[in-house]
Amino acid sequence: MSTATHDTKREAPAEPTTPVGKAADYLDQRTTIGVLVKEFARKVFPDHWSFMLGEIALFSFVVLIASGFFLTMFFEPSMALTTYEGEHPANMHGQLMSVAFSSTLEMSFEVRGGLLMRQIHHWSALIFMASIVVHMMRVFFTGAFRKPREINWIVGILLMILGLGAGFTGYSLPDDVLSGNGLRITDGVVKSIPLIGSPLSYFIFGGEFPGHHIVPRLFTLHIFVIPGLLLALIALHLFLMVLQKHTQYPGGGRTDKNVVGYPAAPVYVAKMTGNFFIIAGVLTLMGATMSINNVWNYGPFDPSPVSAGAQPDWYMLFLEGSLRLMPGQGTEWVIFGYTLPLNVLVPAVVIPGILFTFLIVYPFLEARVTGDKREHHVLDRPRNKPARTGLGVGFLAAFIILALAGSNDLIATHFGLSINSITWVFRILFFVGPVFAYYITKRICLGLQRKDRELVLHGHESGRIVRFANGEYIEVHTPLDEQERWLRVNYEAPAPLEIAPKTDARGVKRKGYASDKRWQGLSRFFYEDRVAPVSPAEVEAAHSHGEHDQLDGSERQAVEAGAGSTSREH
Amino acid sequence: MTQKLKHSQRDEDIFVKALAARRHHRLAPVVLLLLALLTTGGIYAALAPSTAKAETVSTADIETGKKLFQANCATCHGPDAEGTDGVPSLVGVGAAAVDFQVSTGRMPMQMTGPQAQAKPAQFNEEQTAALAGYVASLGAGPAIPTDEQVDPALGDASNGMALFRTNCAMCHNAVGAGGALSEGKFAPALWETSPRNIYQAMLTGPQSMPVFNDANITPDEKRDIVSFLVEQREGSAGGNALGALGPVSEGLWAFAIGLGLLIGAAVWIGAKSS
């Protein structure tokens, strides 16, 4: 339709003949939307599969809205008590439960397609969060958060936090034992906040936990407040993406001043439509064949039972893990009659606080230690920013270690290990693992950069061994083509910040020197170890002292030239 | 000689073929198969060991049991089953405890460790009954439950669910998929455990498990729990149960299957057509 619009507009006065054309013309005459559609249809986006990770999040959100819309038709967010009269499942028949829980059962067993919708909704939620995290990883490791996209990076973080909120509030709605356990932990975490903890918990639960208000309150948050905010921020996220143009991977002809790719219509319209159906199809298939969160297994909420294997959904697992790892003894202090429960406060408030602070602050921190105020539209290859890549992998390692620690009981039973030993191993790993991951990743990046240098200077190993008349052997190297070379040399390897001296010309101490010194220290941490890209001069030098190019062109020539000047591969 | 034999064989072949052609009806194999099945089934029904055995243990059986005990168990439990250092006395544990431990293969113990592991049973049913009879003769204890006591069809799964949730799920998982205990011990999964063994475990509290005596959970309630657990084996209403392990396995599958497929699709869509 969009193309039809601008075509009819462009080929001017001729009346549209097709039905689509007529409809488009009708619309355009009343809204002048054609201008906008034309503009957008011609907009160029770069092409890469990793740019579709965010699309997975977007479309699973669409599936979430659609299936959630269905579920709200049957769910009753009430904590009033009732007796379940349904025959299915047999193990719930005749039990006392909240209306929220019984309506969840009825929706699953009485409503046609209800269980399918519930399962699609839940799987979509897991995939939504998973794709957000993977999308964030892509953005982080390629440096797509740099100027001018810092704001969109923060919008993305807010989206992730809202996604966590949506997941948590939805997970707690059925009022089963498992989600009730989760709410109990939340209650404990809220209460661990010094001074305001207890009043805040009473405020949230409308009295002592669990009370009668929490499910309706979570429901309002889950179907109204959070999705509303999500929608608004997704709109902003996409708007900024279009406004600032999409980043592109480095390659020949791609600069910070252009965008190399395909137009939105018809290429991306087709690709996105296809991707939407694939995503909706996969999510439906998962909902149809894999059971998820069988709340009737856990039963209606009752504060007393907790079943083995009680864990939150995966995106909250790192919090569960940090709570499981924290030693309980000696970490609860009473100061002036106030309890400071560090055993809860540190793992449940401080640890996620550090993670989110790192994510929010990082773009600004990196710009500061790089001394970089320019715009960037060409992405970094992760290897070309070893410290950033290392830090990302380090934080990821901490996240994964915590998530594994949250599954320590399942690891124990499935691998025949002692849960106590696992806990101790993870306690140590939590501190050692990320540092180790940082170091190893950074070394790998530096190694890959050196490999790139090597390739640019000497070309690919061809595997062809040539013997000269004087008996000497050399291996012939194939030089890189232009595209390959561009990719490997066209990056920046910033040096640590240089700062003004401590004293000025007259020997007076300079203001702000101490602060500059600290920033310089941090900058050294980032850029002390660096591998500079090969300069044109170096390429020139390498080619003049070696005979690789000639050799590749014609072996005979090389042999005639004699082996004296041919560099041996070390 | 060979010539003659060949000749007679050929004659016989012709004769048999002729006979066969007349005798074979198209449905003959089916009838034969049915007959065979009936015969085997009948013989099995007549000869199969009766499970209601515990009440009738003869003195001779007790003697056999004693011999078996001394040969296989006395090293740890002592010649008179009174226990040794760190090994419990079996006086008063009852036939139910012996039947549970021996029929699940936990005893005789394969090796020392955090807890005795289940393995294929080392003794057959008669030997197990003899051992149980011997130990029961040492002091009064819980008897082996009757078939009726453990029949899942007679229990109320809904009530069993409520009881299981309050008393058992914290170790055995909400539907009996098992769970971890301290120092390498664990509450086993109950998917394969026989109703009789489930009942006996509640009655006798093997290993780390507490005893749920008949005052604590009545025999009818125990049967309700058995009924609930057996019902769980029918699978989940929503598709593959993924081990019934809860959100961790769901998360793993979300990444492995869901995100795996979707990223695969993204790579496919993003691949250059040229």
Report on this model:
The complex is a heterodimer of chains A (570) and B (274). Chain A has helices at residues 2-10, 19-31, 33-41, 53-72, 99-109, 114-141, 150-171, 177-192, 197-205, 214-244, 264-289, 295-298, 317-325, 342-370, 386-405, 408-415, 419-458, 482-489, 513-527, 536-545, 548-553, 555-561, and strands at 44-45, 81-83, 96-98, 262-263, 332-335, 338-341, 460-467, 473-478. By secondary structure, chain A is mainly alpha-helical. Among the domains of chain A are: 2-41, no CATH class; 75-110, no CATH class; 445-561, no CATH class. In chain A, the strands form 4 sheets. Chain A has a two-stranded antiparallel ribbon with strand order 1-4. Chain A has a two-stranded antiparallel ribbon with strand order 2-3. In chain A, helix 15 (386-405) packs antiparallel against helix 17. Chain B is mainly alpha-helical. Chain B has 3 domains: 2-47; 59-138, Orthogonal Bundle (Cytochrome Bc1 Complex, Chain D, domain 2), CATH 1.10.760.10; 152-232, Cytochrome Bc1 Complex, Chain D, domain 2, CATH 1.10.760. Helix content of chain B is 54%, strand content 1%. In chain B, strand 1 (179-180) and strand 2 (186-187) form a beta hairpin. In chain B, helix 3 (59-72) packs across helix 6 and helix 5 (94-103) packs antiparallel against helix 6 (125-138). The interface between A and B is large, with 75 and 61 residues.
